[in-house]
Amino acid sequence: MKVGEMTVPVLRCSGCGAPAIPPRYVCGACGGTGFAQDRLGAQATIHSYTVVRVAPEAFQADVPYTVLLVDLAPGLRVTARLAGDKGGEGLSIGQALKFERVDDRGVYWFRAA
Question: What pLDDT does residue 41 have?
Fold first, then answer.
């Protein structure tokens, strides 16, 4: 990774080294219970997505917004929101994304690369 490059915060299993999205209490790969903070490169791809047009009350001001299923690394996916969202316009499965931030609610945000 380049100096100053934005990276994705993850957990890494102390037993087998598998990455995981927090919160995680048991490793899905080996069953271990020890984790350390780590970071992955900011590059990701869209596995799937949906545009939310009818939302719960707390998110009605955001409609329409896009919820992404993002591949970060082999075997590691996270549900995320699309930054700079225009109702999912121009998105495609496999499209490159760039990590932007994790907000105070633990939501991962990505931007189309």
Answer: 84
Could you give the CA distance from residue 91 to residue 110 in angstroms, rounded to a whole number?
12
| pLDDT value for 2 | 40
Q: Which pLDDT value is given to residue 5?
A: 57
- The confidence score (pLDDT) of residue 47 equals 97
Give DSSP secondary structure letters for the chain. Answer: --TT--EEEEEEETTT--EEPSS-SS-TTT----EEEEEEESEEEEEEEEEESS--GGGGGG-SEEEEEEEEETTEEEEEEETT-STTTT--TT-EEEEEEE-TTS-EEEEE-
Alpha-carbon distance 104 to 24, whole Å? 17
Strand partners, 41: 7
pTM over 0.70: yes
Q: Quick one: pLDDT at residue 1? A: 36
Architecture category of domain 7-112 in CATH: Beta Barrel (2.40)
